[in-house]
Amino acid sequence: MNINKDMNSLLEEESSERYVNNIDKAPSLPIIYPPPLPKENLELSGGSQNDIEVDRMKESFYKKMICTKTQTLGMFEGLGKSHEMEDVMKHNKNTLKEGSKGSIISELRKNGPLSIEELLKKEKELASINRPKFLTRKQREEIALEKRRLEVKKKRQYIDKMNSNLSTDFYPKDGTNVMSDRNETNGYTNGTKTIYTESKNMRKEMTKGYESSKSSLKKNDEKFELAVEEKELEDIRKRYLGATENKKKRRRTAERKFVFDWDNTEDTSIDVNPIYLNRHSAQFLGRGRLGGFDDKDNKDYTSSYINVLSRSSNEEDRDRAKQLMEMEYKKSSRISWDDVHWSEKPLELMKERDWRIFREDFNISSRGGSIPNPIRNWKESGLPKVILDIIKAVGYKEPSPIQRAAIPIGLQNRDIIGIAETGSGKTASFVLPMLVYISTLPPLNEHNKNDGPYAIILAPTRELAQQIETETKKFCISMGFVCVSIVGGHKIEEQAFNLRDGVHIVIATPGRLLDCLERRVLVLSQCAYVVLDEADRMIDMGFEEAVNKLLDALPVRNQKPNNDDAENPALMSKLIGGKVRFRQTVMFSATMPPAVEKLAKKYLRRPAIVTIGNAGQAVDTVVQIVEMMNTEDKKKRRLEELLNSNDYSPPVIIFINQRRSCDALAKSLTRIGWNAVALHGGKSQEQRESALSQLRSGEADCLVATDLAGRGIDVADVSLVVNYNMAKNIEDYTHRVGRTGRAGKSGTAITFLTPEDTEIMYDLKQAISKSSISKVPDWLKMHEAAQRKPDKQPAKKTADELLFQVPHGRWY
Predict the structure, then answer these.
(1) How far apart (Å, rounded) are the C-alpha atoms in residues 189 and 160?
(2) Where is the Helicase ATP-binding domain (predicted)?
(3) N or C end: fewer C-beta atoms under 10 angstroms in the chain?
């Protein structure tokens, strides 16, 4: 039959796995069987009763399939297809009633089940709708604001609706006025005419009251809307930004302090008796002050007292008022000077506090009795006018810290120990007082010119002695004094020829001066002023014995007493026997080792000790840089980079420990285009002087030198110092670095370290850390050798070293 074929095809179409699973999950619906066909229909159908029963069973099966399909499609397709399925059911029901079997199959084919692709598409659409979507903070705020706007809009619509209802209550749409309806409240009706019981004015007032209430309602509504908007914005801020919690600060009971003093606001005497409003002030005596009162209150009382005295008829009271006014003026002028900086005050108004601030500004510290105040400028130094004119001509604008402190002490004929940084201007600090001292002595003539010089200056090296001679001659020539230097490297006959006419000042090295004394070329019979410059360096170089012999050769008659009289400037300035003054000894050093302290204790009498900055420390105008170099080639490449970098202008000083390496490095620098000269102990005196003169004049760019040039050599405007080899001790390192950054100018010192320099790393780290403008590199800070000071005692030898030790002397 055709119906069976259609049914089989329908079952094949519905046999997919997804559809069958959904059919199993779908709830079963009750099957509604069609009513039995009437007899007239049996005759029209053309079949027997059994055939009709079979057809009825088939129709019930079709209906069950249709109902189950409707349930399944409703589950997967949603509400959008439910009305279509209802139409199909109604249509199928009608067709069943009509008894048409072919129409059921056609409808099933027409509205058959959805394909798998369509079902998957529907599922993706539903998943995309139900999938959560991430919103940014700004989008959430916009959504919240939009939601709030809609709510406010609804509220406004509701309020407008209420207002419109309120207005329609008074003014209905039909045009009648509620106020005119008086038949129940304010009047009665007599036929067609309403008779009011209240007056006309009362009715006007009632109308005005309604209008005013209406306007007030509008204003209140506007205020309410603004308040609502502000509240909503505040809620949104709290929601997204968080609320600010104002916690009340709780004060602990232990922190409360009871005030025992009375306050003026607690005075209740005015309430008891009004006479206390006008208090009587006591009349002042003397200077017009009362003890225990503030100066401001005393000043007010004094001014009122002066006014009372000035209005008095007594002449004595008026004179007293004038005296008090003068005293107040003087005191106010003194008070005003207290707040002025020391540089702007007159010298006579400087107080102890000002001098203390002055010493702190220049890092000056001094020890000893009766030490005068330092000088603020050259005009207040007390030097003669001829010396001040020379200072101005030379170009010394402001005195250095050591000059500010040492010159006033030197002018009082006091022994001085000056401990100052290298390059701080020590030469002028002892030369200027020395010239003042010599100017008070008798002039040289035929009788005393062979008794020797009035002053001697000892320096450790020839170069330093010649440098001091150059600086001293700037002042001696104008004052008529003769200054001569006696150093090694020159013929002693030439130096004896220079001494034949007598000299005032001799500048010498200890070895050559002692040689002249032993050869009777020079005597020190009238020497009264002794200067030991770079005393620590002289001791280190082995001149301690020579210095002791020279100081023992000085005359004894002018030696100071070793008591408190040595600190009295009036006694020390007097002439002994009318011709000779007490001998004055001055010692300057960058460091103060025990040997120098022993020397000072033996030959100096009650000295004043002046310290500038920290002893043994480089000046704060030098930037100290340390670099680790493992090989010699790396050193040379780095040195070439520094010289060719154009960061440092000539002159440049390079320090090396060995003479042979000094000459070799100077030649290699000459090959690469630098005009370099060498300076070491193996050079003759003429070669040394030539090298320094070339460097100072600008003919040479670089000076390659040993520690011979590390002490006292003053070359102007040295921009860079390179320690090609690290110094053997920290004192030599300090003096090397001191060749730059002199006279207040800035400079740079670069040191090349090698793994063999471990013994000095600790002291080097400590020296750099004391500088305010230099920084210790991290690798040096963390190096094992820089963590503790090395043990100076030699290490004990092992058994193997003792076994294979070669004995001294000859083999027999």
Answers:
(1) 36
(2) 407-610
(3) C
Residue ranges of E strands in 680-746:
702-705, 720-723
Ramachandran sector of residue 530 (left: φ over 0; alpha: ψ -120 to 50; beta: rest):
beta
- The owner of tokens 């079952």 is 11
Measured between alpha carbons, how far is 608 from 371 in angstroms, rounded to an integer?
7
Q: Tell me what pLDDT residue 108 has.
A: 44
CB atoms within 10 A of CB 578: 7
Tokens 């801020």 sit on residue: 237
H-run or E-run covering 585: strand 584-589
Decide which of 3.15.10.40, 3.40.50.300, 3.20.20.70, 3.40.50.150 is the CATH code for 622-786. 3.40.50.300
CA–CA separation, 178 and 800 (whole Å): 133
Residue ranges per domain, the chain?
Answer: 2-130, 146-177+207-239, 266-338, 357-612, 622-786
Model pLDDT for residues 28-73, shown as the tens digit of each residue: 444 444 444 444 444 444 444 455 555 565 555 555 555 544 444 4
Kindly report the backbone phi and psi dihedral angles of residue 313, in degrees, each rounded to the nearest multiple of 5, phi listed first.
-80, -15
Confidence of residue 335 (pLDDT cuts 50, 70, 90): low
Please tell me whether the peptide bond between 651 and the residue prior to it is cis, using omega within 30 degrees of 0.
yes
Confidence of residue 211 (pLDDT cuts 50, 70, 90): low
Smallest CA-to-CA distance from 709 within 621, 718, 611 is with: 718
pLDDT tens-digit profile of 583-612?
A: 899 999 877 888 888 888 888 988 999 988
Q: Write the class of the CATH domain 357-612.
A: alpha beta
At residue 382, the 3 state secondary structure works out as: coil
CB 434 within 8 A of CB 624: no
Q: Beta strand pairing status for 575-576 and 580-581?
A: antiparallel
Q: Is a pLDDT exceeding 80 seen at residue 794?
A: no
> Which position has the token pair 């619906």?
29
Which H/E stretch holds residue 664? Answer: helix 659-671
Q: How far, in Å, CA of 739 to CA of 618, rounded?
A: 10
Task: Give which of 603, 595, 588, 507 is closest to 553, Cα–Cα.
Answer: 603
Angle between the N-to-C axes of helices 385-394 and 462-479, in degrees from 0 to 180, rounded to the nearest 10: 120
How would DSSP label each residue in 492-513? HHHHHHHTTT--SEEEE-HHHH
pLDDT value, residue 75: 45
> Do 622-786 and 357-612 have the same topology in CATH?
yes
- Which residue is listed with tokens 């609706």? 161
Task: Give the DSSP letter of residue 272.
Answer: H
Beta bridge partners of residue 563, listed in sequence order? none
Structure-block tokens of residue 144? 């919240």
More confident site: 76 or 119: 119
Q: What are phi and psi of 416, to 5 degrees?
A: -130, 140
pLDDT tens across 473-486, in order? Answer: 998 988 889 999 99
Average pLDDT over residues 752-772: 87
Size of the chain, expressed as the number of residues it contains: 812
3-state secondary structure of 548: helix
Contact yes or no for 547/472 (Cβ under 8 A): no
The confidence score (pLDDT) of residue 360 equals: 84
